[in-house]
Known about the structure:
Elements lengths: L31 E9 L2 E13 L2 E14 L2 E15 L2 E11 L2 E10 L2 E5 L4 E4 L18 E3 L6 E16 L2 E15 L2 E10 L4 E7 L5 E6 L1
Antiparallel strand pairs: 1-2, 1-14, 2-3, 3-4, 4-5, 5-6, 6-7, 7-8, 9-10, 10-11, 11-12, 12-13, 13-14
Amino acid sequence: MASLINFGFVTATWIATIGFGVANATPTLAADEWRFNVLLDGKRIGYHRFQVRADGPKRELLSEARFTVRFLFVSAYRYAHDDHEIWSQECLAQLEANTNDNGARRVVNGLRRDSRFAVSSAERTVELEPCVQTFAYWNPEILHADHLLNPQTGEYVPVRISNVGVESLVARGIRQPVEHYRIVGAATIGGALQIDLWYSLDKNWLALESLTVDGRHLRYEIL
């Protein structure tokens, strides 16, 4: 089966199971959490969980995605993505991401040093501008970006982000007004990119939709 998602755009990690040596650190402030069921063509295939801990201007993200797609009761596709990010104000300071895409493993690391942000993978190391942001949907400040870093592949993707408008959405069993945003990106390793996001009117992330590379419908529903 083709890769379901080629984005650290959609993928990341959960707290006690991450092997970055920081999962058991005690946060200095209360953490924000987002927990999503992940559905493929309307059928649940797994989960994606995020936790952001704040300490003054520093924020630490731990994120985990686990997907399993079954065909005739047999696991036909498995996906795991773990992402640890450290942010200073609205800029990424450090990144460690590990992905197992149905057996294909990839590690991406990033570090801001002096006036550049260096991103390394097995294939290459590239230097980017000093203030880089990932596809960090939990942070509404990314909605102003013109490039976003894919932590799964290390690609720095040109994006166009638009406000589609105010809509109505059921989240956690409650119908409420929401703002709908759309991220459109240039062709990447996995092909062209379109991601739809829904936020509460106070900019809390509630839902996500996208198409997989083989044209199937992927949706995140907040728990």
